[in-house]
TrEMBL record:
Belongs to the AHA1 family. It comes from Streptomyces sp. 900105755. Pfam families: AHSA1 (PF08327). Residues 12-152 form the Activator of Hsp90 ATPase homologue 1/2-like C-terminal domain. CDD domains: SRPBCC_CalC_Aha1-like_2 (cd08895). It comes from the Bacteria. This is SRPBCC family protein. InterPro entries: ASHA1/2-like_C, START-like_dom_sf.
Length: 155
């Protein structure tokens, strides 16, 4: 059964600034890892049909075992659609031996002007069943909080 997870947040920066942070390697490394993780981009090709490979490392793997190894989640992300400054659609595949993390999850980042800021809504479809919904939505919300802090400091 297909599952959809989502989270949203209003960010005090214009859509173009937020969109730029979605397509900048150093920016992604800074804000995308949720609380308790750090990230490193290994491959970067920011165009439709391109993508990136990110290694997410748990700062305390004892309480949060990784999908790829005890301390890491490795995810290959393809850019399925880039529609500046409104939408980024990504296809994410986790590197994992556990079949409960198999499959391609689609992450749609929708940006809409909201007063002086941007409402960012992230919708994840076809979420692998091994990812708990509450944990996943909290992780998305954490990444959105990081994104807000990152772009609001820059803007």
């Amino acid at each position: 059964m297909s599952r959809t997870d989502r989270a949203s947040r209003v960010i005090a920066a214009p859509p173009a600034t937020v969109y730029g942070a979605l397509l900048d390697r150093e920016s992604l490394e800074a804000w995308l890892p949720p609380e308790g993780m750090r990230g490193r981009v290994e491959r970067w090709d920011p165009r439709p049909g391109g993508g990136f490979r990110m290694v997410l490392t748990y700062l305390d793997p004892v309480d949060s075992p990784g999908k790829t190894s005890d301390a890491t989640d490795v995810v290959d992300v393809g850019f399925a659609e880039l529609a500046p400054p409104e939408r980024v659609v990504q296809r994410a595949v986790f590197e994992a031996d556990d079949p409960s993390y198999a499959g391609t999850m689609t992450m749609t980042w929708h940006l809409a002007a909201a007063g002086d800021g941007t409402e960012v809504t992230v919708t994840a479809t076809d979420v692998p069943p091994g990812i708990e919904q509450a944990v996943h939505e909290a992780g998305i919300a954490s990444s959105l909080a990081n994104l807000a802090s990152y772009v609001e400091a820059v803007d």
